Known about the structure:
Strand content: 25-35%
Number of domains: 1
CATH superfamily: Crystallins
Bound molecules: calcium ion
Radius of gyration: 18 Å
Strand order of the largest sheet: 2-1-5
Amino acid sequence: MKKRLVAGAAMGAAIMAGSLLAATPANAAWAFCNPGYLCAYYDSNGNGPNFAGQYDNPSWNGSWGYYNNVTSSLWNNGTMSNVNVYVNMNYSGANFTVYRGTTKRHTDLFWDTTGGRPAGYWNDNLESNLWL
Ligand SMILES: [Ca+2]
């Protein structure tokens, strides 16, 4: 009987947790990003696998994986600098600055019109980064 009550209580807690999750804004889902790094995520709101760069990277493809043209959200968790991101390798093509801090994250590049670009322009298009 006691076990049953415990199980019932656990289930109730799980349901409550589910309700809380549903009420939480989507932008609360950001995966951890090491301090000092630029993190570029596969999906919006910091979800999915991510490229994490501490230095200048002329290409986001490498031994760590293939991250060119897949990014949908960005977080500059740098400790000192802002960072530019580019649509081509070797710091070329259209670019914008990702400013430091959690309030400056780019939550969904599909709808991001930074620099006056149309929706969809930046999404799945970034390939390199240069710290400023
Ligand atoms: Ca590109």
